[in-house]
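input
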Amino acid sequence: MTPTLDPEQTRYLPGLVRAYLTARDTGRYADAAALFAPDAVVEDDGRTHTGIDAVSEWVIESATAVEHTTTLLGHTVVDDRTVDVLVRIDGAFPGGTATLRQRFLTDYGVIRRLTIEPAPAPDPTSD
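output
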């Protein structure tokens, strides 16, 4: 696996989120999975993965199923436990490109929930 996230892109992310994205991007899947709580939940692509074993399998499967690159588009710290990360994924899947919101819910130094869904469309009325 070739890392695709530019370290400068992740520089300003909160530490736990940065650690997860960096570990996953560099093929350190066990390290990425270790950042989740034992009872963590991941929602991705219409499926729910509950518990550390299911989340560990998801980390590997989602990172290796298709060749892809990830570009960090931005992030928002919603509150002291929630971080939204906007990414563009380009790869060998139908459509070839997807812009996704990854919502991390953290608690006491672990990821409790990660929800991955299509990014909301920009509001045409905002400046």
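quick obs: The longest helix spans residues 52-64.
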